[in-house]
Amino acid sequence: xxxRLRRDVRNTREYYExxxxxxxASLGHPNLTESQREDRVAKIRxxxxxxxxxxxxxxxxxxxxxxxxxxxxxxxxxxxxxxxxDLRYRRAARSLSLIWNPVTRRLDPLRCEQCGQTTTRIHPTxxxxxxxxxxxxxxxxx
Length: 142
Ligand SMILES: [Zn+2]
Known about the structure:
Elements: H1 2-26, H2 34-61, E1 81-89, E2 92-101, E3 106-107, E4 110-111, E5 118-119, E6 123-127, E7 130-134, H3 136-141
This protein binds zinc ion.
């Protein structure tokens, strides 16, 4: 693609260079009226801008745009082990259910009960009669 673009840009530059040379040579033609001459001079002056526009068009033409969308998802139905854990801290107590995931071969991560982020390291924080499960940053903010 890059190579073809470079080739087309080079050809375009060569084309405009040849056109300019031809038009400049025609200015010396003896039968040319003054208005025709001015007209050609103006056209020669506009050639670089016209060439730049053509090159921009080429660059647009060679741009590759890829749109990717999800086509399929895999859903695995497997037996899991549910581990019930009782947490006690002073007068506070709560139970917690952990899932052992045989696909990943580890406990599924939990969600921080303050910020909602998934975390593999939970910090139980006891306050009054409740225990909250927090991620490390949230547990440091208390
Ligand atoms: Zn958190």
